[in-house]
């Protein structure tokens, strides 16, 4: 195992469930790697909806796995980019000094993080830390939803409902990479941004109803969950695909479980494909996305940047919703 200093580090910790107000910056021991782990110096991290769910402990069903009364893993943050500073004795995929990015179970909002090598992929030198940190959760969610569930092909018509957010801004661009004609649904203030990333048609949901379209879509990627299922089916082709993300509606107890169950049940009685999306981190997908960014075919949209020291403020702003792209935390010494 490569030696690593046993010095301490600064990390954001949530000792109990709640909003950003429960977070506190603490000095904790710097991690050391296990046999198949690496320790990464965090250069940038990005926020995702999963961070909020784990911070708040909602839906409450989550607490069965993550701690009933308080978080089992109080250090928060899942998406990051940084530099490998130590590797475990059985690690052959990375070496000290490598630039990596990925999604980890927890602890990304810190100076250093430890995780299994399967959590990471290499960051090309042409991609900056902030861009790389923006990609993992949102990019893989968009890719797996459109490519794997939607099976989007050139010439198809795809609708992205919730096109301006973290996942949505990637979905618009990935659908274009896959050769689709893209209709993006967003609010008035995001129209120009969504157009700038390649949407062929932009619908302002505050003005027009996308479910009244005369032309059906081959795939609908629903990132908002703000319409009834029958509304989506009305504008879906007979062989089309409806992909529902974790942003589906729900209460604090079960969250989107009821909604996602209805999607699964209706799927049993139609030749259409209706599926909920549960993203599975995959280094191969990270490598594919990194190549797209490096080639200029994919541009991470970053709306807000905060120093890591202001994570509490960043999370409070993120929790208000209506973001345009991603919110980034930048390392203390950047």
Low-confidence stretches are 1-5
Distance between the termini: 28 Å
For the residues shown, what is the average pLDDT?
A: 93
Class by helix and strand content? alpha/beta
Instruction: Tell me the total number of β-strands.
Output: 15
- Rg computed from alpha carbons, rounded to a whole number of angstroms: 20 Å
The gross shape turns out to be globular
Largest sheet: 7 strands, mixed
How are helices and strands ordered from N to C? EEEHHEEEEHHEHEHEEHEHEHEHE
- The fraction of residues assigned to DSSP E strands is 25-35%
Helix content: 25-40%
What does this structure look like?
There is one protein chain. This protein is of the alpha/beta class and 334 residues long. 27% of the residues lie in helices and 27% in strands. Strands 3, 4, 5, 6, 7, 14 and 15 form a seven-stranded mixed sheet that branches. Helix 7 links the parallel strand 11 and strand 12. The longest helix is centred in the middle third of the chain and has 14 residues, at 136-149. The two termini are 28 Å apart. Residues 1-5 have low confidence and may be disordered.
């Amino acid at each position: 195992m490569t030696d690593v200093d046993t010095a301490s580090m600064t990390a954001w910790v949530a000792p109990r469930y709640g909003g950003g107000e429960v977070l506190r910056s603490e000095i904790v021991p710097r991690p050391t790697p296990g046999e198949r782990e690496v320790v990464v110096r965090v250069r940038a991290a990005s926020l995702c909806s999963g961070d909020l769910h784990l911070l708040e402990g909602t839906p409450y069903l989550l607490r069965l796995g993550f701690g009933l009364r308080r978080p089992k893993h109080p250090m928060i943050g899942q998406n990051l980019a940084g530099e490998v500073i130590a590797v475990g004795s059985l690690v052959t995929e990375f070496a000290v000094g490598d630039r990596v990015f990925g999604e980890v179970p927890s602890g990304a909002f810190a100076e250093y993080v430890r995780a299994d090598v399967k959590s990471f992929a290499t960051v090309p030198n042409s991609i900056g830390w902030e861009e790389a940190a923006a990609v993992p959760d949102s990019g893989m969610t968009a890719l797996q939803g459109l490519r794997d569930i939607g099976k989007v092909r050139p010439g198809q018509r795809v609708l992205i409902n919730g096109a301006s957010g973290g996942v949505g801004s990637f979905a618009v661009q990935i659908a274009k990479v896959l050769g689709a004609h893209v209709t993006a649904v967003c609010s008035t203030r995001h129209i120009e941004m969504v157009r700038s990333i390649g949407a062929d048609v932009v619908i302002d949901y505050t003005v027009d109803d996308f479910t009244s379209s005369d032309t059906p879509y081959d795939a609908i990627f629903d990132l908002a969950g703000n319409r009834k299922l029958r509304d989506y089916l009305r504008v879906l082709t007979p062989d089309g695909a409806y992909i529902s993300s974790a942003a589906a509606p729900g209460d604090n107890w079960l969250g989107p479980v009821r909604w996602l169950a209805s999607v699964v049940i209706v799927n049993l009685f139609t030749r259409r494909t209706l599926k909920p999306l549960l993203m599975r981190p995959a280094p191969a997908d990270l490598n594919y996305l990194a190549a797209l960014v490096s080639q200029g075919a994919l541009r991470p949209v970053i709306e807000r940047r905060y120093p890591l020291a202001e994570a509490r403020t960043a999370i409070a702003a993120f929790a208000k919703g209506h973001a345009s792209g991603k919110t980034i935390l930048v390392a203390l010494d950047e």
